[in-house]
Write a structure and sequence with these properties.
16% strand; Plavaka; 11 strands; two-stranded antiparallel sheet; nine-stranded mixed β-sheet
Length: 420
């Protein structure tokens, strides 16, 4: 590349001496020495930026501002139709008589956070990642000797029975049964603010096979955070507060699941993982919960069975099954006290399930294996019994040493599992 020549005005002018050219280190050069070749940076040198995309992002943000503030940026991102579904909130408050002396929980407004449950189901059903783990119809499997086997939800008696009901109705005949699996964990408090606690509710599709839920494939989706009121010890055992907590729980679930209500009687056209559209009927399916929450869901008294009418004093014996029509009949002919004492039913409570067709909570309640079997049996009972025995059989100092030794051995055992 030729060096540009230095030019000066040709009109008559008087100039100071021309500045003498110098090297990079400052040493003067002889007159008329050409400048050194220009050294352009390498084409892949984006320093001080890490790479070209980083530089172009900085250039875009600095030179071509398209948003007035961060709020406008977030609002635009929220309008993107793809990705996770958005959350919304609704409020519930006590609507009974309140005066200046009423406890604080009566004056509170309780906020419940939720997603559009119909949109969640559509998203689950249309996910092409589930194409190899999705059952479109109930089925039965057998061993070579003819013995019936069960594996996934759609292989069970309940799914077949509900599909029969859908097929028998001329308005829904030919529609795909879409069971809705629900679950919640009252012991998992995710957020605690003020006088309320929140615990999550989860949803999955019963058409998905078990391996889809085990594989962390987004087959189980949080759909709500229920508000659990708190109050001082003076009021927490009062009947009014306990009744309000039950009513708040069921009213919240009714509101959360309401978007699915129409699709339980009127077929909805949905996109399936295989790319085909089908008419679908939604059906409330198993509700997975530990025993304290089963009591709340079924509207029964603590200590009674949520599935049968066995007395709370003889739970080893299987009693007549509970079912929705029977509970409604009993509530119509007995007083609240009679329902409580004779049948273990909390009379004034109207379970959320009564707002939805074909659903029977006594049939749909499913055990929470983690909390009832693993943590309930082992941690809450066996571990407690062992600790009690050690403390009863040894002096306090020795008992504490034994417990610490057990903790150390357990820690080494768990660490060893991760080394295998």
């Amino acid at each position: 590349m030729e060096s540009p020549s230095t030019s000066y005005p040709t009109t008559p002018c008087a100039y100071y001496s021309v500045p003498q050219e110098a090297e990079r280190n400052g040493h003067f050069l002889p007159a008329d020495t050409p400048p050194p070749p220009r050294q352009d940076p390498p084409i892949d040198d984006w320093s001080p930026f890490e790479n070209r995309p980083t530089f172009e992002y900085a250039e875009l943000v600095f030179e071509k501002t398209m948003f007035n503030d961060v709020g406008e940026v977030l609002a635009t991102i929220d309008e993107i139709p793809h990705g996770d579904l958005t959350w919304s909130s609704f409020n519930i408050s006590y609507n009974g008589q309140i005066d200046a002396d009423s406890p604080s929980w009566m004056h509170e407004t309780y906020t419940i956070h939720t997603r559009d449950t119909l949109a969640v189901q559509r998203q689950l059903i249309s996910n092409w990642d589930f194409v190899n783990g999705f059952d479109y119809v109930p089925f039965r499997t057998y061993k070579p000797d003819g013995t019936r086997t069960w594996s996934n939800l759609m292989s069970g008696h309940w799914a077949w029975k509900q599909a029969d009901k859908v097929a028998e109705d001329p308005l829904t005949h030919g529609a795909m049964l879409c069971p809705i699996i629900l679950g919640s964990d009252k012991t998992t408090v995710s957020v605690a603010t003020g006088n309320s606690e929140f615990h999550p509710v989860y949803m999955s599709s019963g058409n998905l096979r078990n391996e889809m839920r085990r594989g962390h494939c987004d087959a189980v989706v949080p759909i709500a955070f229920l508000s659990i009121p708190k109050t001082c010890r003076e009021h927490e055992r009062q009947d009014d507060f306990r009744m309000f907590r039950r009513q708040l729980y069921h009213a919240s679930l009714v509101h959360i699941l309401q978007p699915l209500r129409e699709g339980m009687t009127v077929p909805q056209v949905v996109l399936c993982p295989d790319g085909h559209y089908r008419r679908a009927i939604f059906e409330l399916g198993p509700f997975i919960a530990d025993y304290p929450e089963q009591v709340l869901l079924a509207g029964i008294v603590q200590g009674w069975c949520p599935k049968c009418l066995a007395s709370n004093k003889t739970l080893d014996n299987i009693g007549p099954p509970r079912f929705r029509a029977l509970t409604e009949e009993l509530c119509g002919i007995h007083t609240e006290q009679q329902l409580w004492d004779a049948f273990g039913i909390v009379g004034p409570i109207k379970p959320f399930i009564t707002e939805f067709p074909r659903a029977d909570i006594h049939e749909l309640i499913s055990p929470d294996i983690l909390h009832q079997l693993i943590k309930g049996t082992f941690k809450d009972h066996i571990v407690s019994w062992v600790e009690g025995y050690i403390k009863a059989a040894h002096p306090p100092a020795e008992a504490q040493w034994i417990m610490d030794d057990i903790d150390r051995r357990e820690a080494f055992f768990i660490d060893g599992l991760f080394l295998c």
